[in-house]
Amino acid sequence: MNTSADFIFPEKYRILSGSTLKMIAIITMLIDHTGAVLLSMYPPAQKIFFTLFGREYSLYLIFRDIGRVAFPIFCFLLLEGFRHTHDRFRYGLNLFLFALISEIPWNLMFTNTLRYEKQNVFFTLFLGYLAFCAIEYFQDDQLRQLLCIIGLLIVSILLKADYSWRGYIFLLIMYYTRKDPTGQAILGSCWLYYEWRACFAFLSINLYNGERGFVRNKVLKYVFYWFYPVHILVLVVIRKVLFL
């Protein structure tokens, strides 16, 4: 673990385990997707409640804004997983398999069909994970390292994975600033200027204490993997029943 001087918050305030961060990420993601799938279909949820800094807020927009913090936390957790896993091949394989599994719910969420031009966020995380692996594998060969990074960037553009190339670059920023949490928060926030609400994720990230937390067995670990496709599918079914 880094020294307390490297963190925004003193050590006594760093009380969030990796498991707690996972809970924050999936809850905020659920709120976001509830807004996208259900509240977008419910006109009263789009009624303006108040205006803040020139931006009009409805229940729908509040849900979507809360959800912005999920992606940076997932990126941070991916990096932690990469650093601490005992089997990088299996870790990457799990990301790829759940990217494939999540495609049908993802497509249904946006089009109510099995086809959609963009790919789910697991693909973004998987490409970032491959970049992490390439950077370390070719750490003594800067040319091959650069070619791999650029190649994966091109794939992220062509694949149209969620958060697009910006999400891929953000993962690289998280990797290269992994030893400097304060710098990570500053550079990451600057990169996320187009989704500034996501910057609040760094508050919880900098409360991380380096502990794994309650998720210590394979069953619980895979619950978090399965949560992504399953919760989307459930929301799609609810939308079908209520609005379509």
TrEMBL record:
Protein origin, superkingdom: Bacteria
Tagged with keyword Transmembrane helix: yes
Pfam families referenced in this protein's UniProt entry, alphabetically: TraX
Family matches, as InterPro entries: TraX (IPR008875)
Ranges annotated as spanning the membrane: 21-42, 57-79, 91-109, 121-139, 146-165, 185-207, 219-238
Keywords, sorted A to Z: Membrane, Transmembrane, Transmembrane helix
Protein name: TraX family protein
Native source species: Blautia aquisgranensis
